[in-house]
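#lab-general

N.A. 3:47 PM
ok so I finally got the sequence cleaned up, no stray characters, all 200 residues accounted for. can someone with queue access submit it? mine expired

B.Y. 3:52 PM
send it over

N.A. 3:53 PM
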Amino acid sequence: MKTVTGLFDNYDDAADAVRELEATGVPHANISIVANNSDDWYEGDRSEAAEDAGAGAGIGAVIGGAGGLLTGLGVMAIPGVGPVVAAGWLAATATGVVAGAVAGGAVGGIVGALTESGVPENDAHVYAEGVRRGGTLVTARVDDELIANAEEILGQSRSVDLAERRRAYEAGGWTGFDANAGEYIPDETDRDSARTINRP
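B.Y. 4:20 PM
back already:
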């Protein structure tokens, strides 16, 4: 099994990628989506998804059902990232690293969860920063026979070129994801979605 990850500036593109992954046979239990919600674009389920994860049920337990991963989105907060809309195993892992710590989350939880699943740490930092700055992360754990399809779906033209994004961040003085940096405020700085760094 391999972890395949893609970062998207546009939530709709990320949601399309999730649907494509499910259509190619990746179980929704093996897919995760984490999207920045600092501007409250998502007004959906603010139910007990985060609280259930803190109690040990995990976001993964909340998502089930025939509707697929996107039917189980919940709102929570991750330190350094801020409010997110999330579903799936990565969200459960990122918020469950510290027992019962969903309201406060786990410091660096996304980076830790990604690296534990096999994503190189330097890439995990860019992915976490991408979510912090308004992006959406899609991650899938796939069996060997589905790796090529998953890599094609998450490496499509609508996803972020990770090397370019890293260079852009570093050009602005960024050295790595900092869970203590505070929320990224869209009104104060440009969001990545306003950039033109996506692949042609």
